[in-house]
Amino acid sequence: MSDTRAKDLREEAALLAAFSKGDATAAQVLTDRHLDPCYGLALRMLNSTAEAEEVAQDAMLRLWKTAPSWRSGEARISTWLYRVTANLCTDRLRRRPRQVGLDQAQEVPDQSPSAQAQMEGADRQNALYQGLALLPERQRLAMVLRHLQERSNPEIAQIMDLSVDAVESLLSRGKRGLRKVLEAQGALDKGAGAQGRKDQAHG
Amino acid sequence: MADKQKGPRGARDGDALDALFAQARSAAPRASAALHARVLDEAGRVAQAQASRPEPSAFLRALGMLERSLSGWRAGIALAACACLGVWLGYGDPVGLQTGQTGLVTALEADAFVLDPDAPAFAMLLLDG
Predict the structure, then answer these.
(1) CA distances in angstroms from A177 to A50, A70, A106, A135, listed in the order given
(2) Looking at residue B71, what is its pLDDT?
(3) Rounded distance, CA B11 to CA A77, Å?
């Protein structure tokens, strides 16, 4: 284990220990650090603000309850929270009625008057989220963790309890599936590339 | 793997897809202030409940440390079972063991293993060298 990682793990364990002794500042720091990523993952998995809020709140509650028995040096809080959030999302997705698969989705005719116009700006983002929502659950989870939450493949493997090879395979299939959907919707054109590069240059 | 083999069109689409993801990352969703407040409120209640819980005794803490160092309760149960078996073997009446021993070689059978130097076959062997 590298020194930096060991130091981070010690700091996280100290924060949780401080929280369980009633330190309100520790709770604030942990919430500021971890709530947004949990919420972001849940939102992209569930596509529902209300459900994502419930899941993120539940995941954080589990962290508070686990704090006194947290084993220092075993896992990062972020990895643990992503795993809890992913499991909570999976539970909710399994309770939902079955959604339209990738193949059927491509057959749905576009009834909007100007499909191309809808692909501009924010709508292009919506197309991406809709495309992600059409991927099989595990591919979607891997894609969101990798490309939106910017987690490394080994960390995704830890979160999903898979081998790194299996994660790479999920990502490869996920990217192929997503590209197919976005191409069918006309969301993958030069505009997206140009806009993205402009955003990256500004960001 | 497929990504590594993509042609010019695949590469262009890949760029466009990466650009879409980059755009999405730059507008990452943030939890609302209300959600922040709810999470912190729950944290306060949990911390209060944890603080009001009595501290475990030194014995229980030591037991917990032992349990953790033995990698969980399953290993603890296996160790306890082995210890009980050891005590039982050590203190128990070894009747079964004795019966087994005498059952294998009785006094009568033991005579069969004694070599008789007067036996003719043995004498022949001695002469032959």
Answers:
(1) 27, 39, 11, 7
(2) 63
(3) 36
Instruction: Please give the Cα distance from A139 to B9 (Å, whole number).
Output: 23
Report pLDDT digits (tens) over B49-105.
887 766 666 777 677 666 666 666 677 788 888 888 888 888 776 665 555 555 555
Name the CA dihedral angle for A153, A154, A160, A162, rounded to a multiple of 10 degrees.
110
User: CA–CA distance from A79 to each of A21, A140, A149, A158 (Å)?
Assistant: 23, 17, 11, 8
Tell if the CB–CB gap between A125 and B27 is shorter than 8 Å: yes
Contacts of A60 in chain B (CB under 8 A): 39, 42-43
CA distance A111 to A84: 39
pTM: 0.67
Contact by Cβ (8 Å): A152, A74: no
d(CA B50, CA A62): 13
**Side chain identity at residue B113, one-letter code:** F
Q: Does A179 touch chain B (CB under 8 A)?
A: yes
Give buried/exposed letters for A182-203 (b at 16+ CB in 10 A, else e): bbbbebbbebbbebbeebeeee
Contact A124 B42 (CB under 8 A): no
The DSSP secondary structure of A118-165, one letter per residue, reads HTSTHHHHHHHHHHHHHS-HHHHHHHIIIIIS---HHHHHHHHT--HH
